[in-house]
Amino acid sequence: MSNDLRLLVKNAKQIVLVCNNGERYLTKDGMKKFALMENASLVVGKDGLVKAVGPAGLIDSQYKEASFENVIDASGMCVIPGLIDAHTHPVWAGDRVHEFAMKLAGATYMELHQAGGGIHYTVEHTSRASPEQLLAGLRPRLLRMLRAGTTLAECKSGYGLELDAEVKMLSVIEQARRELPIGISSTYCGAHAVPRGKTASQATDEILKVHLPKLKDKMSKGELSIDNIDVFCERGVFDLNCTRAILKAGQDIGLQINFHGDELYPTNSAELGAELSALAVSHLEEVSDEGIAAMAKSKTSAVLLPTTAYILRLKQPRARDMLDAGVIVALGSDFNPNAYCCSMPIVMHLGCVNMKMSMNEALAAATINAAYALGKSHLHGSLEVDKQGDLIILNSARWEHLIYQFGGHQELIRYVIIKGMVVYDNDKTMDY
Ligand SMILES: N=CN[C@@H](CCC(=O)O)C(=O)O
Ligand SMILES: [Zn+2]
After folding, report:
1. In this predicted model, what pLDDT tens digit does every residue of 98-114 receive, in sequence order?
2. Side-chain half-sphere exposure of 319, counting CA atoms within 13 A
3. Are residues 339 and 407 in the same domain?
4. What 8-state DSSP symbol labels residue 94?
5. What is the CATH number of the domain that holds 95?
6. Are residues 370 and 388 in the same domain?
7. What are 199-219's pLDDT values in tens digits?
8. Using one digit for the tens of pLDDT, what is the confidence trace for 153-202?
9. 10, 27, 364, 368: least CB-packed within 10 angstroms?
10. Ligand 1 pocket member 260 (CB < 6 A)
11. 3-state helix, strand, coil in the chain (%, to 5)
């Protein structure tokens, strides 16, 4: 038996695999009854990949001669895959707590945006901040996500808008990827708002003619690695034609399409996502029936963001209609200065209570389907042989407590493990 083993997690009361047949996503009944084992153990190799997962007795006998760098006795505890947050805006400067008060007093999101607040307020502060200041803000936010069980997060730019400020944000994301254990999928979101003094079509032109060629150049020189392209497709921001042009041009330079749509007003964003074979469309509070059908057919995932509807008191995304139609439903925190939540356990709870998902559906949406939305479900999102050994060990005998105990994840999560290495031990202070 090989000695190249990093971790044995033994005797867990439950191991939630989510998938056990190499599925790249789950829909319908697959989400309702995902794969789970009772009294099981799991092995991760020194390459960070899962080598075995199975009944505790079997793993015991198969690996009795093996030596491990670390052994965790998970008796009475549960193991689930690391959570995946498919939509975040974690790089920014400036504080918007005053806007929360204004929204509580009745101001709408768009009223603040059109009055120069919201995204524009954050753009103003982020543009002035140095890379060091932005990184100093980003680091603790990502570690907060990690402590809440997120092992892979999508991270957007989009508070720069002008090229230099966007590149600054993307470079800060890149630096965080090098420094911290959490996995990052990086997204260029230069079309997050129309910069002051420009029209949407002037901004679109600049993105097409200046931003994307520059990003392509930086990617080819290895100075930046960007995974996705995003646009805020919304009435009063970027319309369908501008959005289509930007997304297609992004796709042409190798970026995956993953954009904001149908949030505040119906704009046929879901239909556009299907037309472009987008990997994901986020929000979708105002999606049409036709949009749902088109997304189910094109295998464009829906990244639903329960915190947005909650904080803005919007109507809830139609999770049930999408799930029943066979759309690949994923979840994200939407962590940003408007929706200040970086806890996927809270997001899953809101998904269940407010969007009527079952707990199994919510976990599948926050693992394998979120990985699919980022084009990473071949390596992330389930506990299967040859996938990355990213997992959470819970101080409870049933995994559902992570969703049920609203806001209780701080006590429930005992370990967060990435590539078989403990990156958060709730009993110890980690050195990052
Ligand atoms: N809707 C657009 N973008 C963000 C909000 C960004 C902000 O308000 O700063 C979202 O996904 O909710
Ligand atoms: Zn967003």
Report:
1. 999 999 999 999 999 98
2. 25
3. no
4. S
5. 3.20.20.140
6. no
7. 999 999 999 999 999 999 999
8. 999 999 999 999 999 999 999 999 999 999 999 999 999 999 999 999 99
9. 10
10. yes
11. 40, 25, 35
Interatomic CA distance for residues 187 and 226, integer angstroms: 6
46 CA distance to ligand 2 centroid (A)? 36
Q: Is the pLDDT of residue 417 over 80?
A: yes
233 C-alpha vs ligand 1 centroid, how far in Å?
Answer: 11
384 Cβ inside 6 Å of ligand 1: no
Asked if residue 317 and residue 191 are part of one domain, the reply reads yes
The two structure tokens encoding residue 244: 């289509």
CA angle, residues 10, 22, 146, in degrees to nearest 5: 55
At 107 the three-state DSSP class reads: coil
What is the residue with the minimal CA distance to atom 9 of ligand 1? 119
Same domain, 132 and 257: yes
Last residue of a domain, one of 345, 374, 403: 374
Given 356, 374, 392, which residue is the final one in a domain? Answer: 374
**Are 107 and 168 in the same domain?**
yes
Do 203 and 151 lie in one domain? The reply is yes
Nearest atom in ligand 1 to 339's CA: 12
Our count of domains for the chain comes to: 2
Given a cut of 80, is residue 12 above it in pLDDT? yes
Check pocket membership of 154 for ligand 1, CB cut-off 6 A.
Answer: no
The domain that holds 25 is classified in CATH as: 2.30.40.10
| One domain, residues 92 and 222 | yes
CA distances in angstroms from 421 to 9, 90, 139, listed in the order given: 11, 24, 19
Q: Is the beta carbon of 119 within 6 A of some atom in ligand 1? A: yes
Q: Please give the single-letter amino acid code of residue 425.
A: D
Residue 316, domain extent: 83-374
| 27 shares its domain with 122 | no
The model's confidence at residue 3, banded by pLDDT at 50, 70 and 90, is low
Whose atoms come closest to the Cα of 261: which ligand?
1
What is the Cα Rg of the chain in Å?
21
What is the Cα–Cα distance from 331 to 306, expressed in whole angstroms? 8
Residue type present at position 294: A
Placement of tokens 């198969």 in the chain: 62
Average pLDDT over residues 349-355: 98
8 A C-beta contact, residue 389 and residue 5: no
How is the beta sheet containing 301-304 ordered, strand by strand? 83-85, 150-156, 183-191, 228-231, 256-261, 280-283, 301-304, 329-331
Measured in angstroms, how far is the CA atom of residue 88 from the centroid of ligand 1? 9
Position 2 pLDDT exceeds 60: no
pLDDT of residue 4: 82
**Residue 320 Cα to chain centre, angstroms:** 20
